[in-house]
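Q: Here's a chain of 252 amino acids. Please give me its 3D structure as tokens.
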Amino acid sequence: MPSPLRRLQSQFTASAIGDADGDFVAAVHGGGRLSPLEAVEVYRAGYPARMSEALGETFEACWRILGDEDFLEACKIYSRTVASASHNLSDYGASFPEFLLARFKEHAPFIGDLARLEWSFKELFHAAAHAGLTPANLSVAVKNDSVLIFGSAVKLLSFTYKVHDLWKRDRNDDAPLTRSDWEGRQQALLYKSGGTPVLSRLLAAPEASAFKSLYEGRPLADALADAKGLDEAAARNLFSFISEAGLVASVQ
């Protein structure tokens, strides 16, 4: 049986998210000229507003593309059905990409991918940067049969739609989207190393195939050789990027 405090906390959460709980309202003392119900209504109005603000900070590109009315209405509904489970508001919204896709898939089928990209960026932004090997140290350590151990601040993402382009779109570009703006698969890398901010790089299909194999622990020579369409020049270019970006934390 929950303690009186735990029961009161549950009633408060239920009242802030949904309809005001009668027992909770009865336990509240109104402040100033506010009645108990009016005092509870302050939280019922404030909670979704604060949750919407947190979602807007994380999913800025989705907001820009969907527009104020659709995005804020989605935030309001989501905040009424999904409670925050953390004291840190930046943690709120893990399931928002799936929610947006279910709500807008008819006219914006790309919105789930775009939201997932923004959530991944947020996670990486708040994550500690790893200490990557310098190009000189990596060059000395690596052999054909080496396994590259990538740092923790590296994310390889695959998308059904061209959402990296939408994410990078000029904020002042208010031209209506056409199907050509989002149709087509993309694979992108998010990363940071040392004191760098979060950076991104689009990967061609052969590069993504090779990088995925390397990320999963395949030996260097095997990963590069098995990536279809990755010629020698492209392989050198990919390895040069991995080296210069400091993506590798160690070599085995």
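Q: Can you summarize the key feature?
A: The chain has a mean pLDDT of 90.
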